[in-house]
Write a structure and sequence with these properties.
Layout lengths: L12 H8 L3 H8 L7 H14 L5 H8 L4 E6 L5 H16 L3 E6 L5 H13 L4 E5 L18 E4 L8 E5 L1 H15 L4 E5 L5 H16 L8 E2 L4 H12 L7 E4 L2 H13 L9 E6 L2 H5 L5 E4 L2 H17 L8 E2 L2 E3 L11
Parallel strand pairs: 1-2, 1-3, 3-4, 4-5, 5-11, 6-7, 6-8, 8-9, 9-10
Antiparallel strand pairs: 10-12
Helix pairs in contact: 1-2, 1-3, 5-12, 7-8, 9-10
């Protein structure tokens, strides 16, 4: 090898080539991961890169190729169980495909804030964006997306103009309701999530349709904020009336656990006197007593499918139409046939 340049301000590809005793083209091949380079030569070039502190100019390469191998992620609620699992699945799938991910949380879901998040991602040069929408925005027409940037939306309205990936919310809700109906329950109540949540709205609509289809009188739907405290408050209201339900379908596990707490405080035996079904199949629900019957959402599949579709859009490949990920019902100890009256 020739001597290294003294105190270079910024090592160039020519500096690396000179130190390694190879051509600049060979350095470029190593930097770009080409396989047609011998192991010994690759090690020599990498050692020279490390000695000089050289980093390949990926931005220049990306500008030349029109690809940045980066995906932007935007979410309204980074702490929600489903969002955490979906984001993790997206990051893993993107990494396997050779893409990096950039996450931008948006606490206030307005069109303007979304436009700001998309603008920041544009500045960081992403090839596509996955939006975990989860809640309605005030001005959906204000989505200022950069022309030509592919977008996949997770958890939104099926009528959205954008490509959607989501859990099949209606199928999950109907699994829960059919289970309770088959056990013999007819007075079935529903505790829904917040009104601005797409998933909460889909589950509540499916509940109401099921009750109408089976000529059952549906109590007024109570709403919580996804927290156990709101589920406990809903339980106190539902179970304190003159004609309490024999079963409750709850829109998520946290609220369902809160409702179980309200039932215990009233001295009701679950499931002997009250059956409860949640939605999410969270670890907390499985470890509670009685263990919670719940609708299982495959968040990993949602994240993987969203990533696969986005990469297909980036590559210009055909994509499936608005796929929904099926759910399954995990039956545990919180449901049983209603007691004879």
């Amino acid at each position: 090898m020739t001597a290294a340049p003294e105190h270079p301000s910024r090592a160039s590809i020519k500096d690396v080539a000179r130190l390694a005793g190879v051509s600049a083209q060979t350095v470029s091949r190593v930097a770009n991961g080409y396989v047609h380079v011998s192991d010994a030569l690759r090690e020599r070039v990498l050692a020279s890169m490390q000695e000089l502190g050289y980093r390949p100019n990926s931005a220049a390469r990306n500008l030349k190729s029109g690809r940045f191998h980066s995906i932007g992620l935007v979410t309204f609620n980074i702490t929600a169980l489903g969002n955490q699992r979906t984001l993790g699945a997206v990051a893993e799938a993107a990494t396997r495909a050779g893409y990096t991910t950039t996450l931008i949380p948006v606490s206030d879901p307005t069109g303007g804030n979304l436009a700001g998040a998309f603008g920041r991602l544009q500045e960081q040069a992403v090839d596509g964006i996955i939006l975990l929408m989860s809640a309605k925005i005030n001005s959906p027409h204000d989505l200022a997306l950069t022309d030509g940037v592919p977008l996949v939306v997770v958890d939104s309205d099926p009528t959205s103009q954008y490509t959607l990936v989501d859990t099949d919310q209606e199928q999950g809700a109907r699994l829960a309701m059919q289970h309770l109906f088959d056990l013999g329950h007819r007075r079935i109540a529903h505790v829904a999530g917040p009104d601005d949540s797409f998933s909460a709205r889909h589950r509540a609509e499916a509940y109401s349709r099921f009750m109408r289809e089976h000529d059952l009188e549906a109590p007024e739907i109570l709403r919580g904020d996804w927290s156990a405290a709101s589920g406990r408050a809903a339980g106190e209201s539902l179970l304190g009336g003159d004609h309490p339900p024999t079963a409750v379908f709850v829109a998520n596990d946290e609220m369902a656990l809160g409702l179980l707490s309200a039932a215990h405080r009233r001295g009701l035996s679950v499931p002997a006197q009250l059956s409860v079904v949640g939605f999410d199949d969270s670890p907390d629900g499985a470890g509670f007593w009685p263990s919670l019957t719940s609708v299982h959402q495959n968040f990993a599949a949602v994240g993987q499918r969203a990533t696969a579709i986005l990469l297909a859009m980036i590559d210009g490949d055909p994509i499936p139409e608005n796929p929904l990920i099926p759910t399954s019902l995990v039956v545990r100890d919180s449901t049983a046939a209603p007691a004879a009256r």
